[in-house]
């Protein structure tokens, strides 16, 4: 008997009126690409946009503050918040030859026309589940809510400014049917092909079993398109205090799965040059961003320091500790820096000497101003 798999495609969205339909339609097209796909759509994208009067002369969506506020109250593990769910939630998921699909879209308090666009689309497409937050809580909160309500055994994370290639779900379903014994599958976004071609572990491989220690030690990095056991995602929810630095959470998933099957097929096209992209939010040009970096490094050490010791990855441990030390000094946290220096013991290299000097003379503010100027000039921000 053919194995049936349920997939929950998870899309957090915030102020993406100009591109959310591209993402949504790509999911619909990918489902329909599989023989026996979901029923024909009852309305087209142009009809949806016209019905909510969103387009200006440039073809981009106008800002729109008119939206339905959440009426139902739901409680997550991170606290109470207002949200509203719209869909034929008890209806049949989009069905296709190798599996069943639902597309969970969580709006993170958008203030433009995103909500209106998705609401109109949901009316004719019961495979879409739409959740609305009444205020902006961050991408990780949106992901956690989608994971919480997901019906699928597997979750596919698809960002709202990215979109599937037409055969994306066919590739995913075929791969998992042929190799069903993994808890985590990884595929390629188009903008990562160059990196994967150069990576010593992945390059030249059509498929490769990747191991948790390879990611922990930094031998493999970069972004993948993840198809992960929903059970694992629920076990290790994303920290909602962090809106970036997802890598530390994926390490938790990798440790649980131990072995991940990488398939060298492009399944998404990604847009990373947007002015409102969060990609540049990792640049430490403000105390807020530096504080997030502190939280990321502290979370990393709390969860993985023992593994790094056991696996003999002293260089990796030292790198993370030095990054945290720099963050402490940038924020003027000299007591924390002093304790960490004592713990590290051996601080080597030119940068290490500079950081020790900054710590002893309490020159954190001067160091921060210098770093900020360097980053502004380098990245032209």
Walk me through this protein's architecture.
With 381 residues, this protein is an alpha/beta fold. Helix content is 42%, strand content 20%. It has helices at 20-33, 45-51, 114-122, 139-149, 168-178, 193-198, 212-216, 230-235, 247-257, 287-310, 314-330, 334-344, 349-361, 364-379, and strands spanning 5-13, 72-76, 79-86, 94-96, 99-107, 128-133, 154-157, 162-164, 184-189, 207-211, 225-229, 259-270. Strands 1, 2, 3, 4, 5, 6, 7, 8, 9, 10, 11 and 12 form a 12-stranded mixed sheet that branches. Strand 2 (72-76) and strand 3 form a beta hairpin. It is globular and about 65 Å long.
Q: What distinguishing features does this structure have?
A:
381 residues, alpha/beta, 14 helices, globular
Topology, pairings included?
Elements: E1 5-13, H1 20-33, H2 45-51, E2 72-76, E3 79-86, E4 94-96, E5 99-107, H3 114-122, E6 128-133, H4 139-149, E7 154-157, E8 162-164, H5 168-178, E9 184-189, H6 193-198, E10 207-211, H7 212-216, E11 225-229, H8 230-235, H9 247-257, E12 259-270, H10 287-310, H11 314-330, H12 334-344, H13 349-361, H14 364-379
Helix pairs in contact: 10-11, 11-12, 11-13
């Amino acid at each position: 008997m053919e194995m049936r798999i349920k997939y929950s495609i998870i899309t957090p969205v915030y102020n993406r009126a100009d591109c959310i339909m591209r993402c949504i339609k790509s999911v619909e097209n990918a489902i329909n690409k599989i023989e026996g796909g979901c029923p024909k759509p009852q309305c087209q994208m142009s009809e949806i946009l016209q019905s909510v009067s969103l387009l200006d002369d440039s073809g981009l969506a106008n800002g729109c503050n008119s939206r339905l506020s959440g009426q139902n109250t739901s409680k997550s593990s991170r606290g109470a918040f207002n949200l509203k769910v719209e869909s034929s939630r008890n209806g049949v998921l989009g069905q296709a030859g190798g599996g069943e699909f639902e597309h969970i879209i969580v709006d993170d308090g958008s203030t433009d026309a995103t909500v209106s666009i998705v609401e109109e689309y949901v009316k004719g497409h019961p495979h879409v589940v739409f959740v609305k937050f009444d205020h902006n809580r961050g991408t990780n909160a949106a992901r956690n809510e989608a994971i919480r309500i997901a019906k699928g055994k597997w979750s596919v994370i698809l960002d709202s400014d990215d979109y599937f290639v037409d055969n994306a779900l066919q590739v995913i379903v075929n791969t998992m049917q042929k190799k069903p014994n993994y808890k985590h599958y990884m595929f390629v976004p188009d903008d990562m092909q160059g990196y994967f071609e150069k990576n010593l572990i992945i390059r030249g491989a059509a498929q490769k079993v990747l191991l948790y220690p390879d990611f922990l030690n930094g031998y493999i990095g970069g972004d993948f398109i993840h198809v992960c056991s929903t059970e694992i995602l629920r076990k290790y929810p994303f920290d909602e205090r962090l809106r970036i630095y997802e890598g530390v959470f994926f390490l938790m998933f990798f440790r649980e799965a131990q072995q991940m099957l990488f398939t060298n097929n492009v399944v998404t096209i990604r847009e990373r040059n947007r002015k409102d992209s969060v990609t540049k939010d990792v640049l430490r040009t403000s105390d807020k961003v530096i504080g997030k970096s502190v939280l990321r490094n502290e979370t990393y050490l709390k969860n993985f320091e023992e593994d790094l010791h056991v696996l003999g990855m002293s260089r990796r441990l030292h790198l993370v500790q030095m990054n945290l030390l720099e963050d402490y000094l940038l924020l003027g946290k000299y007591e924390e820096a002093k304790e960490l220096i004592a713990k590290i013991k051996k601080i080597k290299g030119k940068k290490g000497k500079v950081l020790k000097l900054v710590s002893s003379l309490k020159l954190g503010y001067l160091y921060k101003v210098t770093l900020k100027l360097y980053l502004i000039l380098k990245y032209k921000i």
